[in-house]
Amino acid sequence: MTVAVASEPIPRPGGPLGGLRLCVAEVRAYPGRVTGVAVACALTAAGMGACLVLFAAVSGPSYPEGSAAAAAAADAQSLLGLLLTLLLMSAVLVTGSTVALWTNQRLGQFAVLRALGVTAGRLRALVVADVALVALAPAAVAAVAGTVPAAGFGRRVLIERELFPAAVELPSTGQTGAIAAGACLGTCAVAVLAALASVLAAGRVQPIDLLKEESLALAPPRRNAGRLVAGVAMALLLCGPLVVLMAATDMPPVFQGAMVMGLAMSVIPTLAVLAPWFVPLLTGPCCVLLRLLDRRAGRIAAAGLRAAPARTAAIAVPVLLAVGTVVCLLGSGATMGAAVHRQTGQALRADAVVTAEPGSRLPARPAGLPGGTAVAPIATEVTAPSGFYDDQPRPTQAWGVDGAALRSVLDLGEQQGGLTELVPGTFAAGSTQAASHHWKLGQSVGLRLADGQETQLRLVAVYQRDLAFPSFVLPADLALAHTPAPYADRVLLRGDPNTWELRPGQRLAARADYLAHLRPRSVQDDMASRLIVSVVGGYALLAVANTCAIAQRDRRSQRAHLRALGLGRGQLLRCVVYEVLASALVGAVLAVVTAGICLVPLARAVGQGPLPALDVPWTVGVLTGVLVATVVPAALAARPLRGIRRQFATGSS
C-alpha cells in the first residue's frame, strides 16, 4: 500500500521582504563587494548636495552689472556646474564597473534562484532593488551629515580665491534640507542607471549555468567586431581630426591649449573601448619583466596576466583615466605656464616691476622714476574681426603705451615693423592674431575698442612674444580716450627702484623676484583644472581599489592550490602584488601614450620643443595613489592565508 506524503513547496524569494533578506545576507557575507558602491554614493551625495547648496546661494541675489560680485558669482556658477557634471560622470563610472563585477560574481546564485523558479524579470528587479538599497543608506547619511559642512568649506575656499561673493550666505535650513534630500534621491537614481547593464545581464542567467565554472566574472573579453568597429570609428572621427588640427595646422597656441583636454577626453574612452586589443599587446612585455624580476612568483603572476586579460583591462582602464587626466590636463597648463615664463624672462628688460595688490589698481598716469624710466601700459581691450578660428570673437587684452618707451623696458620680439612707428591711427599685433587673420604689414584693420566704438587702424608692427603679453598694443592716447575707468596694468621701471615712491596698494619687485614669483595661470583656470583632476582621479582610484579587491575574492581556490603545492605566504603575496602592479603599469603606459598624443603638438606650438612640461607634484601624487589603490586592497583581499590548506581540502570558500 502506497502512502502519499505531501511534500512542502520549495520557498521562493518572492516579495519585497524576500529580496531585502537576500540583499542583507549578501552584504553581511561579502561586505567588500559593495564597499566601493557605498563609498562612491556617499561621496556623490555629499558633493552634489554641497554644489547645489552653493549654486542656489549664489544664484539667488541680484548683483550690480559689471561689479566684482557679479563676476565672482558667474565664476562660481561655472565652476560649480563643472564640478557637478564631473561628480555625476565619475559616479556612473565607479558604480557601473563595481556593480558589473558584483553581479558577475553572483551569477551562480542567480542560476540557483532561476532553478528554484524565479523569473528573469524578478531577477532584474532583485538587482535593481539591491543597488538602490546599497546606494540609499550611505547616500542618505552623507547627504544629511556632509552637505552643510562640505558647502561651508567650499564657500570659504572659493571666497579666499575671489570666486564667490563674500556677502552671500548659505540658503535657509528648509531649502538646504530639500536640496540634501534631492541629492540623496538623485544619487540613488544615478546608481540604478549605471547598473542597467548588470540588470540586463542578471536576466539572461539560466539554470544550466550551474554546470559552468564559477570564474565567469573575469572571463576573457569578447573581441567582437562591433566593439572593434566602434573603437576604430571613435579613433577616426573623434581623435583623428583633433590630432590633425593640432599637429598639421597653424593653430594659435591658446586654441591648442584649449583643445588638449578635449583630445584627452576623446583618446581615453577610445583606448578603453579598444582595451581587448591593446591590453594583450602590452601584457607580453609585462610578463617578461615579471619573469626577470622573480623567477618563481613572477612566472605565476605572468601566467595570471595572460589567462585573464579582462582582469588586467578592468584595472588598467581606471588607471589610464586617473593618470591620463592628471598628466594631460595639468600638463597642458604647466606647458603653457612654462612657455609664458620663458617668454617673460626673455622679454623683460626692466630692473623692477610695480604691480597692484588684490583689490587695488595702479593709476593710469603714475609718477615717474627719478633718474630713470617708468613705463605704465594702460590696460584696455580690443575686439578683432571674426576669423577662421574664431567666428564670434571676444574682447582681447591690449595695452595702450608709447611704443618707443615700451621698447626700452620690454622686448616683445618684433618680427615685422617696429614699435617705434606706433603713432595715432596705428596699432601693433601679436603673431598669433596676425597669422590667424592673415594680416599684412601696412594693412588697415577694423577693430572695436573697449568702449564699443569701431575704428580703422593701420598695422605697423608684428611681435612674437604674445603668449606672455597682450595681443594688441595701441597708442596710449587712443587707449585713454576709449577705455572706461582706465588704469595701468603694471609699471616697468628702468633705473634705481629704491627711488620709486611706493604707495598703499602697490607691490614692488626686482626683476629676479618678479620672475621667481610669476604665476602665469589665472586662479579660476588653475582651480578648475585641479577640481577636475581631483574628482576624476579620486573616483578612478576608488574604482581601481574596488576592482583589485573584488577580483581577488574570486581566486581563493587558485590560492589554495598554490599553497597546497608548497608556495609560501610571502611568495603568494608577491604573486598578487606583481599581477596588480603589472595591470596598473599597462594603464600607465596607455596614459603616457595619451599624454604624448595630446601634449607634444602643444609643446611644439608654444616653442617648448618636443618635451612638454608636467605638473610634477600632482603627477607623483596620482602615481603614488595608483600604487596604494592597487597593492593595498589586493593584498588585504588576498588574506587571510591561514587555514587555506583546509579550504583546499574541503572545497569551502
Written overview of the protein:
With 653 residues, the chain is α+β, with helices and mostly antiparallel strands. Helix content is 62%, strand content 8%. The strands form two sheets. Strands 3, 4, 5, 6, 7, 8 and 9 form a seven-stranded mixed beta sheet that branches. A four-stranded antiparallel beta sheet has the order 2-10-1-11. The longest helix has 41 residues. The protein is elongated.
In short:
With 653 residues, the protein is α+β, with helices and mostly antiparallel strands. It has 21 helices and eleven strands.
Q: What's the overall geometry?
A: elongated
Q: Separation of termini?
A: 46 Å
Taking all Cα atoms into account, the compactness measure Rg is: 31 Å
Record field, number of beta strands: 11
Q: What level of helicity do the residues show?
A: 55-70%
Average the pLDDT over all residues and give the rounded result: 79
Oligomer: single chain
Question: Beta-strand percentage?
Answer: 5-15%
* Sheet of most strands: 7 strands, mixed
Number of helices: 21
Uncertain stretches: 1-11, 213-222, 641-645, 647-653
Structural class of the helix and strand makeup? alpha+beta
Topology, please?
Blueprint: H1 15-29, H2 31-59, H3 68-105, H4 107-115, H5 120-160, H6 173-194, H7 196-203, H8 225-248, H9 253-273, H10 275-293, H11 297-307, H12 309-347, E1 352-356, E2 373-375, E3 378-382, E4 396-400, H13 403-409, E5 414-417, E6 426-430, H14 431-437, E7 444-448, E8 454-463, E9 472-474, H15 476-481, E10 491-494, E11 506-510, H16 511-516, H17 523-553, H18 556-564, H19 569-605, H20 616-637, H21 644-650
Parallel strand pairs: 4-9, 6-8
Antiparallel strand pairs: 1-10, 1-11, 2-10, 3-4, 5-8, 6-9, 7-8
Helix pairs in contact: 1-2, 2-3, 2-5, 2-6, 2-17, 3-6, 3-7, 3-17, 5-6, 5-7, 8-9, 9-12, 9-19, 10-11, 10-12, 10-19, 11-19, 12-17, 12-19, 12-20, 17-20, 18-21, 19-20
